[in-house]
Amino acid sequence: MQDLKRKAGFNSVQVLALVLLAFLLLILKFSFRQTDKIVPGKKAYIHGQNKRGSSESQREDRELSVFRSSERSSGASLENGGFEEDLKFPWGTGLYSDYGIWWNSMNCQSSAELDSRNSRSGRYSLHIINLSPRQPHVFGNMSQRISIEPNRKYMISLWAKADNLASANAVNVPVDPGWFIRPIQLPRGTFDWTEFKGEFSLDTNYADIRILIEDTGEVWIDDLEVNLLN
Question: How many CB atoms sit inside 10 A of residue 158's CB?
């Protein structure tokens, strides 16, 4: 009888230990799930992330940019200005090319994507949204480096549609490395598809065509072109 009691006591301790172990495993499993939870209202953004999803292929594209730019016509060298292709090379080239294609400065809350519901021509336009009010060094942008003939005049043109741009020049297009020459500057407010044009001339053999947003609002851009003036 004593032997049976000892055996029964041992079995009870063993069962209790198993219950405690199962409880601990359940707590650990729940903790891991909490770690992986996505916080509501947060949106992950990686500088330069696009549908290609490969930083290695982007690096290879940038390495080829010098060679490809020399092969382009200096008369009309901008590629994918109608945004009929994905946001990919040669967008993301030029000054700050290591930052990716569309990138934000100083935690600017802006984003850019192709939009098939609003286009001036073709299937797509570039749709940009910015939630950050104008502040120094707070902006979103992307650029494409093109080859040009130094000291020759060029015409840059685009079509744009806007919704509640907070200020004049909230969206503009610098073309030089210092961002001093901005031949296109959009007005504030809301407007339907409108063509904007500007001229520029640089003493370099390249231009960085940069789409820049510096204040709150929403804009669609299509049919961006650069042409040599006779």
Answer: 24
Strand-strand pairing, 217-228 and 154-165: antiparallel
Q: Which of 201, 167, 200 is nearest to 186 (CA)?
A: 167
Tens digits of per-residue pLDDT, 154-213? Answer: 999 999 999 999 999 999 999 999 999 999 999 999 999 999 999 999 999 999 999 999
- Give dist(CA 17, CA 98) in Å, integer: 56
The Cα-based distances of 151 to 11, 42, 94, 95, 184 in angstroms read 93, 47, 19, 20, 19
Q: CA 201 to CA 199: how far, in whole Å? A: 7
pLDDT at 47: 35
Query: Partners of 207 in the beta sheet?
Result: 146
* DSSP 8-state class, residue 58: H
Model confidence band, residue 224 (pLDDT cutoffs 50, 70, 90) = very high
The CATH H-level superfamily of 55-228 is: Galactose-binding domain-like (2.60.120.260)
- SS3 at position 64: helix
Domain boundaries, the chain: 1-32, 55-228
Backbone phi and psi for residue 28, each to the nearest 5 degrees, phi listed first: -65, -40
- Per-residue pLDDT of 112-164, as tens digits, reads 999 999 999 999 999 999 999 999 999 999 999 999 999 999 999 999 999 99
